[in-house]
Every structure is written in structure tokens, then in C-alpha cells.
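Q: Predict the bound structure with NAP.
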Amino acid sequence: MNAQPQKVALVTGASRGIGAAIARRLARDGFAVIVNYAERAGPAEALVREIEQAGGRALAVQADVADSADVRRLFDAAEKSFGGVDVLVNNAGIMRLSSIADTDDASFDRHIAVNLKGTFNALREASRRLRRGGRIINFSSSVVGLLQPTYAVYAATKAGVEAMTGVLAKELRGRDITVNAVAPGPTATDLFLEGKPQEVVDRMAKMAPLERLGQPEDIANTVAFLAGPDAGWVNGQVLRANGGII
Ligand SMILES: NC(=O)c1ccc[n+]([C@@H]2O[C@H](COP(=O)([O-])OP(=O)(O)OC[C@H]3O[C@@H](n4cnc5c(N)ncnc54)[C@H](OP(=O)(O)O)[C@@H]3O)[C@@H](O)[C@H]2O)c1
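A: Predicted complex:
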């Protein structure tokens, strides 16, 4: 009678940090969830068990988003296990900070490979395979506006993600698919905290008028809005979720 097929969300980089919070939240909202990870199978499998124990459906799938064959395999796995993909959350990303003078070729190339090409790889698959009525949520960063020293390469990749967001929203005309980006500010995850002295963390936490770091759940709430029914008219936008830092 009421048997709507279960919607499926594919979350890249969902073994920890913001992606894990998104997978948890979308599972709670009724999605079957693909928990993608690059290397850490243990936390990804543990998250799948947690979701299943709460009555949800999830599957952990290893794939390096920088590798287009891996990303095709990731979508294949989603289709094989859950029948298709309705929501892509393009969350996987890396950040290694250094001034332009001190950035080596390997660091530059890896940022481009994971943050820009990785996002592109998943956007290309999604634009070919996402079901009608789907949602795509990319990951930018508020540093695209803040432009702090040492963030040049990372911010450049995220500016590219914002550009692709606007273009793909238009390319998907007629398919009832929205494409948006979330741009978090400083959020308490490994990516932000690793290598920062406590005083830098404390100073950055005070930068937003709300005077705290974002938590992964703050960002997951924003993604849940964009993935859910209330955001149906929001398309081609970048939503900065950052406590007002910029
Ligand atoms: N935290 C912040 O302050 C902040 C602010 C603005 C924007 N963001 C953005 O938010 C997103 C999530 O960041 P986070 O803070 O949650 O990062 P994180 O804690 O470092 O977690 C990164 C996740 O991405 C996965 N990953 C990394 N490289 C990958 C690859 N090549 N292929 C597939 N998965 C890969 C990791 O998998 P493994 O566990 O297997 O390594 C992990 O699950 C990123 O796009 C980041 O740029 C974060």
C-alpha cells in the first residue's frame, strides 16, 4: 500500500569525521547507505554494524575517489546491493596545509586528485546514473571565502568544486535532480585537528560569532536538509555552515 522503495545514499569518505556523521544521520532518516572509505575498513565496518543494529541498511565499500575505475565500482556496488543511487554526498577530501612557497608537487597533485578529480569522478557517475528526483551534495569549505595563508591549494580545489556544482545543476535540467554544495567552517575532525597546537584550535574556535568549532553532526544536519524533502527548491547553491565565521 504504502511501499515506497527505500532511497539510497552514497556517502564518500564515510569511515570517520563528517562523512560518518552524515551516514549515521541519513540512515536515521530512512536511507540505505553506502559507507565509502579509502583505507580504514575497521571504522567503516563498525559504522555499518551500528546502522544495522539500529534497524537500518548499510554497506561499506572501499574505493579511492581519485581513481575513476574505483568510483565506477562504487556505484556498481550500490546498484547491485540496493538497486540504485538517489543521493550522492561527495564528502571525501584531504587537507595538508603549507604556504605556496613550501608546497611540493606531490601535495599539490594529491589535493587535485582527491578533492577535485575525486569529486568530478563521482559527479560524472552520478550524472549518468542517479535516479530521477535525486540529490547531489558536494563538499566545499568556508576557506574559499576566508582565504587564510597556507590554504591556497586546498581552497583552490574547493573553489573548483563550487564551480562544478553550479554547472552540473544546469546540466541536469529536466531530471528533477538538485546539485548543491555545503561549505563547512572549522569542524572538529581529524582533518581539522591533526597537527594544530591547542592554542590555534582554541583561537579558530572563537572566530565564529557562535564561538565554538562545528561538530560533524552540525554538518550532517545541513546535508540532511539538502537531501530531504524541504530542500526541493534549493538548487545550484553553496551553503556555508560555519557558525557565522564568514
Ligand atoms: N573538518 C573541517 O574543518 C572541514 C572544513 C571544511 C570542509 N571540510 C570538508 O569536509 C569533508 C570531510 O572532512 P572531514 O573533516 O570529515 O575529514 P576526515 O576526518 O579527515 O575524514 C576524511 C574521510 O575521507 C576519506 N577519504 C580520504 N581520502 C579518500 C579517498 N581518496 N577516497 C575515498 N575516501 C577518502 C577518509 O577515509 P579513510 O578513513 O579510509 O582514510 C575519511 O573517511 C572534506 O571534503 C573536507 O574538505 C572539512
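A: The longest strand covers residues 178-184.
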